Every structure is written in structure tokens, then in C-alpha cells.
Amino acid sequence: MTKLIDMSIATALDHLEKGTFSSRELTECYLAAIEHGGSLNAFVTATPEKALEMADAADAARKSGDAGPMCGIPLAIKDLFCTDGVKTTASSRILGEFEPAYESTVTANLWRDGAVLLGKTSLDEFAMGSSNENSYFGPVENPWRAADGASRVPGGSSGGSAAAVAANLAAGATGTDTGGSIRQPASFSGIVGMKPTYGRCSRWGTIAFASSLDQAGPLTKTVEDAAIMLGSMAGFDPMDSTSIDRPVPDYRAALTGDVKGLKIGIPKEYRLDNAPAEILNLWDQGAQWLADAGAELVDISLPHTSYALPTYYIVAPAEASSNLARYDGVRYGIREAGDDLIDMYENTRAAGFGAEVRRRILIGTYVLSAGYYDAYYLKAQKVRTLIAQDFDSAFQDVDLVLTPTAPSDAFVAGAKSNDPIEMYLNDVFTVPASLAGLPGISVPSALSDEGLPLGLQLIGRPFDEETVLRAGQVLESAAEFTHRPTEWWKENA
Ligand code: GLN
């Protein structure tokens, strides 16, 4: 069974096409793995019946010569994507038993192409967090553990999706990335995570956190799988006013393995004094791998980098406070009674939101309030423009930017939960590309001294996912990251 599921999407598609196994057989293996992997707590909801139904439909479609590019591939979906008739929680208590009456565009695209829904994965509540410890349904465990055996966080906010893929509970998974929520958990979990350009994937039907930053993307075992999955997820959608009407290229065809002559920028501002030596060494190693493959390394400067985190932690909470105003106990989700309407709102929101979400709403409301708007929100918007301009001018000279994905390996569960600033600092390398709306990928590149995965990040020009994927695959081949976590969770089955 392990053999069947420890397989890339590309390989599984080949086998499905040859008839080595059916989508139903593959899906059954993943469903069994999900059952045995319960102690990881990666899923909020498993959908075995729906999965088998969809698998049978995929098998039938393939038989009649009508197989889409993801036909029969079992996927986990972050529980931030609305799924028609399937409970959708955003890992929050406030949504209660909410069952959307519609499907998000991204998931609809995947089903159109034949993919199979295994279930919905846990996340930090409303995608706010970097460790998946902010879920109403309890923390997700990283499949990876260091020699000390202590439980590690899978990263966040797409921690359930990352853990599911890393532990072979799904062939691939969707994530969303607002400030790093695909790339950082990918780095912590030893898998590939890709955030496309803002506007590439529709946000329609994805529960909003910070609308000017939110982007969907794939979490997969390989770069090729990321290319396949993104090809299905992406596309123009008139239902999202920020969706961009550009053709979706054949991402798989972009994987030529050739980076000769590509210019790779190495931004000096990312060389943080307090970053662990192993992170900086891996960064140098990654640059060397690309140089060995024929790319040219260029030292660049992104001068406003140090303002990215404070800017993000003003803009994102501001938008969140506005987006989350809709959870008022009136139309859907839980309701806590009160003496009057205002009292009901307050009781509902106090009972329904967890601590981090309440913190963000307070910060967001504060920075948007009269008297502080200019000093904080407006200023942050201006700095955001400067950060985007830094990248614009860098991309006059280089094709890609290479950085570490995160400043550490997966930290011990609970290590940062009482210190929000410490937690926010983990986003230091991912947030700038989010503010600039740029595509980025994290590729598993080495093990840390403690034996945990570390990723490298490539950032590209707007809508140039092809170059990001192409160089990402070259990094992947050079790194030869074939490590797998020991399957301790099966002992607890
Ligand atoms: N960790 C960041 C935050 O807490 C990013 C989250 C995300 O990308 N959704 O906001």
C-alpha cells in the first residue's frame, strides 16, 4: 500500500493511464492511510463516500477516453475552500456546521479535470498563523520529528495540507498563501509548495483572510506535480474581480531542466545576522547548484525588505478585520444569544473566534480607525508600493530571486505560541513576495542538523510561474531530497 501512495501525481497518472491500478484502488489506499494517520490530525473532515464516487466517475471517464489532466488523482483540500455540500470550517468554531451551497472556482477546476476529493484539511483559523496551532480542531502534527521525538509543528497556515502530503495521506493538496502559508509549511514538511502570482487563481469561493494578498496554490511531492496541479487550479474567472484574464500556459512543458543563462538574484537584505548558519549555508549551496547548472548569480538589493513584516502585519489584519465582519451570527454559523442585537453579535464573535483571530481583528480595527488610518494603514500601503518597486527594479536585471523559505526548521509545538511577534518573525522571507503579488515556490533542499526538512524559495516576475517552476525543478534535482519521515503515526493507529 505504501508503495502505491508514495508516488508522485505524474507517476500515478502514468499508471492510471496504463491501467496498472484504478483510481478507486488508489483512492482506497489513501483513505486507509488517512484512517491510520489520525494522530497527525491533518484532516478536519474526511469524505470517503464522496471520494469513492468521484474515483469511480474518474475511472469511467478514463475508460471512455475522456480523462482530464488530473483524472483519478486523490487530493486533500484546505478547509478554506468552499466545497458544495461538504462542511467547510476555516478551522474556526464560528462557522459551526456550515455547508456551502456552491463550490470554489479552484476546486471546481480540479474536479472538472478529474481530481478526487479525499477530505478537508486543517489550517490555522482563517489562515492566520504559521504553525497550525491556531485551529479550533486542535494542532496538526508534523510527520517529521527530530531525534528528540518532540512533536513539531507542520508550519501554517496550510499545515494540514502539508502534513497530509508529507505523510502520504493525499497525492497532493491545495493551500492558500497570504504571507507564506503554502511555502513555509512546505519547507517545514519536506515538500514542494507554490504560490502563483496574485490573480492567477480565482479567489471566488475561498474564504477571505486578506483579499489583496490571498492566493491559492498546490502542495505536492515534486515540482512537476506542482506544475500539473497549478495548471488545473489556475485560470481566469469573471466571478473574481482581481482574477487576471491571461491564458494558462502548459506548466509541465516549461520544465525543460535548462537554466543556462538565467540570472538569479541573491538579495543581500535576506542575509539576516541572526539566521542560523545552516540556513545561510543551504542558501549558498542552492545558489551554487543553480550556478553549476549554468545560471548566473547576481548580487542584488531589495532595500525595503526589513519593512515587509511590519507592513504585512498592518495590511493583513486591516483587511481581515473587514472581511471577518460578516461573521455576526445572523446568516450562518453559530449564534450565541444576547439581550439585544449588539449583545448577540458580541457574544457570538467572542465565542466563535479564537485568540489569534481576535488579536488580528483588534489590530486591524485599530489601524483602520479614524486618527490612526493615516499613520498606520496608509503608511503601510505606501511602504507596500516601495517593496513592490524593489522587486520591479531587481527584475530589470535578474530573472529570479533565490532566498531561504523560512529562518528555521520546524519548531517544537508550543515553542512560539505565547509570543505572537516570535511567530510572525517566521514569515520574514515569504511576506515580501506576497506584498508584491509575485509567484514563489519552496523546494525541499536539505535536512537540518536536527534531521528536519529545509526549503529554498525562488521568486519570479509576475505571471512567470514557468521560470519559477523550471528553476525549481533544477534545484530539486540538484538537492536530491529523497528523505521521508519515519511513519511513527502508524504505530498509534
Ligand atoms: N503566517 C502568516 C500569518 O499569520 C501568513 C498566513 C497566510 O499566508 N495565510 O498571517
- Low-pLDDT runs of 5+ residues are none
**Structural Rg:** 21 Å
Q: What share of the residues lie within helices? A: 25-40%
Number of helices: 17
Q: Can you tell me the CATH superfamily of the domain at 2-258? A: Amidase signature (AS) domain
Q: Widest sheet: strand order?
A: 1-3-2-4-6-5-10-11-9-7-8
> So, CATH architecture of the domain at 2-258?
Alpha-Beta Complex
Q: What is the helix/strand order? A: HHHEHEHEHEHEEHEHEHHHHEHHEEHH
The rounded distance between the terminal residues' Cα atoms is 15 Å
| Unique bound compounds | glutamine
Structural class: alpha/beta
At CATH level 3, the topology of the domain at 2-258 is Amidase signature (AS) enzymes
Write down the overall mean pLDDT: 97
Task: Please identify the top-level CATH class of the domain at 2-258.
Answer: Alpha Beta
Kindly estimate the percentage of residues that lie in beta strands according to DSSP: 5-15%
Overall number of strands: 11
The global form is globular
Largest sheet: 11 strands, mixed
